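Holo prediction — thymidine-5'-diphosphate.
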Amino acid sequence: MTGTFITIEGPDGAGKTTAAADLRNRLTAMGVPCLLTREPGGSAIAEQIRSILLNPENTAMDPVTEAILYAAARRQHLMEVVRPALEAGMTVICDRFVDSSLAYQGHARGLGFDTVWSINEPAVQDLLPDLTILLDIEDEQALARIQARGQLDRFDLEGRDFRKQVREGFLAALRRFPGRIVRIDGSQTREQVTEAILRVCRDRHIL
Ligand code: TYD
């Protein structure tokens, strides 16, 4: 695989989507061919799975079903979008990836990292990111941002305890994969976050 695979992770409200877009714009301006994409979704079939996952009416969804559906969307998106772009030598920036499953389904839903990892192994195989940025943020600030956005999905409707578990889950993933995941303070300004991400990329010689 000749391209570079970068994922941006963090709790809802951490600023992933903005950071991913800003990173794409900076890399493009530097002449680096890149693709910005997101999970769950990013391809027609995966977007259909996303709509089931995020539908606020699906309150009866079993946590294992949920984990399998995320892994299914992930697989489809990897095969249709991410892998071809990496093979073409592009830098792929993906808003959420397998660490979201570890944090949300593994930690917050309580399935455990091992179960979630075993569900995801056939989906991901050897396509782990070269670098994962964890945008970490205190719950109060995250909540203020979620509320300012207005429209809530099934996960936004979860309570404070759930969000706390999600954050802890990401920090546990960071401890599990210290070589791949780098924590960046998401409470900084938009510009500071982008600069911090670029610095990590340069330090790791992936730019
Ligand atoms: P996201 O697209 O980041 O939401 P938004 O568009 O509101 O920013 O993600 C949708 C939700 O899916 C988010 O709350 C986290 C959750 N999620 C998981 O629980 N597991 C996963 O593996 C992924 C990728 C996302």
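READOUT: Strands lie at 4-9, 34-38, 91-95, 131-136, 181-185.
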